[in-house]
Amino acid sequence: MFLAKDQGLLSPLLFDDKSIYTLIIKDIADGVFVGGDRLVTTKLSKRYNTSVNPIREALKQLQGEGFVTVSPNSGARVTKFEHNAMRDVFEILQLLDPYLIEWFVLEHSKEQIQTLEEILSEMEKIEEGDHVTYRNLDTYFHWTMYSQHYNKSAVELWRQKRIVLQIMHVNLPISQARVEQSLIEHREIMSAIESRDVDLSLSILKKHISNSGKYWSRHS
């Protein structure tokens, strides 16, 4: 497996670093810490084997991005995202994904296509019910397409909203029927990209996003 579970499959999404920020947000996205959980600096410093100051700096960054809330009485807690936040995130991603993929269809390299093929192959091997790994690989698939786009502000906004989506879905299982449908859609996207067919890529991507939105609106 080209990405071992113990390496942390979200790390490529977070610029493949081992910073305290990355470690905390990966734990949030993987459901180690859920909405409303307190994030105590001393406990986190022991968990990540670091001093308190890097923990405070990471929490400050996470607060600025909306993943952590801080109040005088209860300290830092994982943000509880309301249901309408998921609607807003989906609508933003519906605008960003087509914008970002259009550039990739025209500018992608053979190496990037190979990476996408490896990711998709790993997605097809995932055991039924391992929805955390599936979501992480799904995110990595899209990140591989979007991360090299020249508009870094759009890329960063996509990154943040995609992480919010993963946090909100972390405890929601994915039906095998939806997994299989999604894999077909990913294969269709791959085929259109390799043909450098922008219109077809956009059409399939929009269908993929729409199907995901309909599924989660019924199950969340």
TrEMBL record:
Q: Which residues form the signal peptide?
A: none
| Alphabetically ordered keywords of this record | DNA-binding, Transcription, Transcription regulation
What Pfam families does the database record attribute to this sequence?
Answer: FCD, GntR
Specify the HTH gntR-type domain's residue ranges: 14-81
Q: Does the keyword Transcription apply?
A: yes
What PROSITE patterns does the database record attribute to this sequence?
HTH_GNTR (PS50949)
Q: Which residues form a coiled coil?
A: none
Keyword Transcription regulation belongs to the record:
yes
* Protein name stated in the entry: GntR family transcriptional regulator
Q: Which organism is it from?
A: Colwellia maritima
